[in-house]
From TrEMBL:
Molecular functions per Gene Ontology: hydrolase activity, acting on carbon-nitrogen (but not peptide) bonds; metal ion binding
Superkingdom assignment: Bacteria
UniProt cross-references to InterPro entries, sorted A to Z: Amidohydro-rel, Metal-dep_hydrolase_composite, Metal_Hydrolase, MQNX/HUTI_composite_N, MTA/SAH_deaminase
Residues in Amidohydrolase-related domain copies: 67-401
Domain Aminodeoxyfutalosine deaminase/Imidazolonepropionase-like composite: 33-58
Protein name: Cytosine/adenosine deaminase
Pfam families: Amidohydro_1, HUTI_composite_bact
Annotated keywords: Hydrolase, Metal-binding, Zinc
Length: 429
C-alpha cells in the first residue's frame, strides 16, 4: 500500500512521449524511444520499454510516424523588417552596398506605420513558432518587436542595435546607451552593435562592456562581404565609397592594415571577442581568424539563405567544424532572404556543403543556436533536466536508420504542417 502511494506520487502528472525515433542531438538517434516529462522538464529519456518500466502508470502519448527532437533556434533575424519582404522577391542585388542603400531607402518610406511593421513581424513570429522554433535572437532599431515578446511562447531575445561610425555622433550614442534601461528592472533590454564597418570603435567597446556587465550576449554582423573586408583591412573600396557618399565616413577610422586581417582580427585587436560574442555571417574569415574565434570561444552564426540572395559568398563551414566551432543558424531578415525557415537554412547549407554530415547540420540548428544564445543549459538537446521544448516532426515511411533520419530532416523541405511542439518552456532570460 505504502509503495503504491509513493509510486503514485512519483508518477503523478508524468507523461511519456513515445515515437519511432528520438533525436537527442548530444547522443545518437534512438529507435522506439520514450521521453518522460513532468512539469515541463525532461525527467528521463531512452528506450521506450525501459522508460515505461521506470514509471508504471504514467500516461503514454504515442507519436507514430514521427521523430521527437529539440526545438530549433533562430540565432539571427530582424523581425522589424518583415514588412519589406517584397525586397527579396526582386532579383539578387549586384552589390552589397547597393542593397543596403536600397533597403534603407525603402525602410525610410514605410517606417512611419507602426501597425504595419508589428503585424508583419507578428506574422513571421507565429510562423517561426509553427515551424518548431523555440528561441530567436532578434535585432532591431526600435522597441516594436520587444512589445511582441508576450506573443511568443518560447524565448524571444530582442537586441537593440546601435550604429554610427562618425566621431561627431559618438557622445550622443554613448549618452543614449547610458540611458537604456537594463538589468534587473528590464532584463530583456539587450543592446548590441550593427557591424565593425558601421560602428565607431568606442561605441563598440561601450556596447560590449555593457553586455559584459549585464552578463548578456553581444551580437554583431561580421565578415559578411568583400566590401566590408576591404574597408576593415585597408580602409578602401566599395564600403568606404558608400559611407563617404552618404556622409557616414569617419576619417579617423583605423583599418587593420593587412589583407589577411579582416573583421574578426579587428574585433580581437580591440578585445571584443569572447565566449558571449556572437559573430553573425563570418564568411570572409582566414584560417588564423578561425583560430582566434575558437581560442576565444566566440560564437558563430551562419545565414546561408541571406548570403545566397545577396551573393556575398559561402562560409567555410567544414573548417569551423574541424576547429571545434559549432556554428548556429539564422535566417536573417525577409529583406535579404525570401523565406524565413531554419529548415530551409539547413537544406541550403547541406546543398552547398555536401561533405558535411547531416547530423552536424541538425546540431547547428539546435545545440549550436542554444550555445550561441547562452541557453544551452535549458535548450538545444533532449536531455534529463532540460526543458521539454520538444518538436514532433512527421516522417515519411522511408526512414530506416539513423543516417537516413538525419538526411531526411535536413533535405526534406519541412513545412509547418508537419511539425508541432509538445511544450514550450518559460522564458529563460
Ligand atoms: Zn542581419
Amino acid at each position: 500500500m505504502r509503495v503504491e502511494a509513493v509510486t503514485d506520487r512519483l508518477t503523478s502528472r508524468l507523461t511519456i512521449h513515445r515515437a519511432p525515433w528520438l533525436l537527442p542531438i548530444r547522443h545518437p538517434p534512438l529507435a522506439d524511444g520514450g521521453i518522460a516529462v513532468r512539469a515541463g522538464r525532461i525527467v528521463d529519456i531512452g528506450d521506450f520499454k525501459q522508460v515505461a518500466r521506470s514509471y508504471p502508470g504514467a500516461e503514454i502519448i504515442d507519436h507514430p510516424d514521427a521523430v521527437l527532437m529539440p526545438g530549433l533556434i533562430n540565432a539571427h533575424t530582424h523581425l522589424e523588417l518583415s514588412h519589406l519582404a517584397y525586397l527579396s522577391q526582386d532579383p539578387s542585388p549586384t552589390s552589397f552596398t547597393g542593397w543596403i542603400g536600397h533597403m534603407l531607402a525603402e525602410r525610410a518610406k514605410a517606417d512611419a506605420d507602426k501597425k504595419t511593421i508589428q503585424d508583419a513581424a507578428l506574422a513571421v513570429l507565429v510562423e517561426q513558432q509553427r515551424q518548431g522554433v523555440i528561441a530567436i535572437a532578434d535585432i532591431s532599431n526600435t522597441d516594436l518587436v520587444r512589445e511582441l515578446i508576450p506573443e511568443f511562447p518560447g524565448n524571444l531575445l530582442c537586441l537593440k542595435e546601435y550604429l554610427g561610425l562618425r566621431a561627431s555622433e559618438l557622445t550622443a550614442s554613448l549618452n543614449s546607451l547610458k540611458e537604456e534601461a537594463g538589468y534587473p528592472d528590464y532584463p530583456e533590454v539587450y543592446c548590441t552593435a550593427h557591424a565593425p564597418y558601421s560602428t565607431h570603435i568606442d561605441l563598440l567597446r561601450a556596447l560590449k562592456n555593457r553586455a559584459i556587465q549585464l552578463g548578456q550576449i553581444f551580437s554583431i554582423h561580421v565578415a559578411e562581404s568583400t566590401a566590408e573586408h576591404d574597408m576593415i583591412s585597408q580602409g578602401t573600396g566599395e564600403m568606404r565609397e558608400f559611407l563617404e557618399q552618404r556622409g557616414f565616413w569617419e576619417s579617423s577610422f583605423q583599418p587593420t592594415g593587412s589583407d589577411s586581417k579582416g573583421s574578426v582580427s579587428y574585433l580581437h585587436q580591440h578585445g571584443l571577442l569572447d565566449s558571449r560574442t556572437l559573430c553573425v555571417h563570418c564568411i570572409h574569415v582566414t584560417e588564423q581568424e578561425m583560430d582566434l574565434l575558437a581560442e576565444n570561444g566566440a560564437k558563430v552564426c551562419l545565414c546561408p539563405g541571406s548570403n545566397r540572395y545577396l551573393g556575398v559568398g559561402t562560409a567555410p563551414v567544414e573548417h569551423y567544424l574541424r576547429k571545434g566551432i559549432l556554428p548556429a543558424l539564422g535566417t536573417d531578415s525577409l529583406t535579404s532572404n525570401p523565406e524565413l525557415s531554419i529548415w530551409r537554412e539547413m537544406r541550403l547549407l547541406a546543398e552547398e556543403h555536401p561533405g558535411i554530415d547531416p547530423a552536424d547540420i541538425l546540431r547547428m540548428a539546435t545545440l549550436g543556436g542554444a550555445e550561441a544564445l547562452g541557453l544551452d543549459r535549458q535548450l538545444g538537446s533532449l536531455e534529463t533536466g532540460k526543458a521539454a521544448a520538444i518538436s514532433v516532426v512527421k516522417l515519411p515511411e522511408s526512414v530506416q536508420n539513423a543516417f537516413s533520419l538525419a538526411e531526411c530532416l535536413v533535405y526534406q523541405d519541412i513545412k509547418s504542417n508537419s511539425v508541432y511542439s509538445l511544450a514550450y518552456p518559460l522564458n529563460f532570460y
